[in-house]
Design brief:
Length: about 425
Amino acid sequence: MHKLHEKYGPICRTGPGNLSVNVPEAVQAFLGSDSKCSKTPWYEQSLPLVNLHTMRDKKVHEKRRKVFSKAFSPASLRIYEPRVSEHTEILIQQLAKMDGKPFDATRWCKFWAFDVMGELSFGESFKMLTEEANRWVPDLLEAGMANVGKFTPIPWATPIVHRIPFLFKGPKTFLEFVGSKVADRAKKPSEKPDVLQYLLEDYEKTEKKDKDYQLLRGDTRLTIVGGSDTTAATLTYVLYHLARDPTQVAKLRAELEPLLEGGKKTLDPKDVSSAKHLDAVLHEVMRMHPVIPSGYPRLTPPEGMTVNGTYIPGGTTVVIPLWALGRSEDAYVRANEFIPERWYSQPELIKNRHCFATFSLGPYSCIGRALALMELRAAVCQILMAFDTIKFAPGEDGTRLLTESKDHFTMGLAPLKVILDNSNKV
């Protein structure tokens, strides 16, 4: 998409009635709270499975979001934090066993993120960091998301594919896995609060018809995918930039060491605001490598709309290519350079803050944003405190990650081989 916009300009026709709009003004126009746009039929690909993300009706979405909001409230996050730290410590222990040998960061970041979300979703880790048994799950999810990417230009074909057994085998197996976890959790209530607790409480208030179960299963799948696949991708890109630029490691360590004195593993909530460079690194990574690179499809209102002086007819499917917009000089100064300082000490390098839409905006914005940032802060803090250096493995420079990763709606990452040198802190 980036190359298309470089060649044809800020607005590109990508298919019949489909436009990619790479201008800063489009973000608020398409995604903002006052937007007149609606979700497209693309979101109905998974029917009869429904989840918070695929709900097109704003009132229905708002009602369901209130159920989710309890699971992602500040009080819930405080309960989750020690469990996130616990699984991050397991990641550190496993990486220390590499003993300075190369490993695939893409894969191990997935194991970590899935284990965390298993713990927070069902009250039980998938144990991918320590055992082989469930390590097939990320691969199955990857295959399923690849199909989403393939059929995004032709969403009408998805119901047909769902009826072809060998084509739908992977997604069906993943849904069966999710369903088994939901059933197990329903039979054995967790002693630890988790996301499914709130979803099950709401389910018990329903008539328990098939549509109610499909919503429960769909939202559970959303929690796993939204909380693992995307967070893992962001952490992988963080490791890429830290390996590529050791000065970033030095800046982060100088900032974090005083805040993590006394053997603390994670930042106290009161110290998060002091870790400006850490949050800036995360934001800069998400700017340059948004985990939903081609954006969120929207349908223009019947009367059409004008964006940046260009009239777009009603009923047009529009997307904002977040990957391309994040590298646009109309949105950022020196857009192709990794400069975390733009987010705190050099704000003049940001021309339009509304362009940062990694978590979307408005009523459909990502409800798990605070949790994702908490997980990422914990992982970066513990990795930096546990290892002296982060570097590319011999023969690795990150090119595969940048050029061979695929847009499946979410990012399907290529391998990234890195080395973490042990310190005496592990």
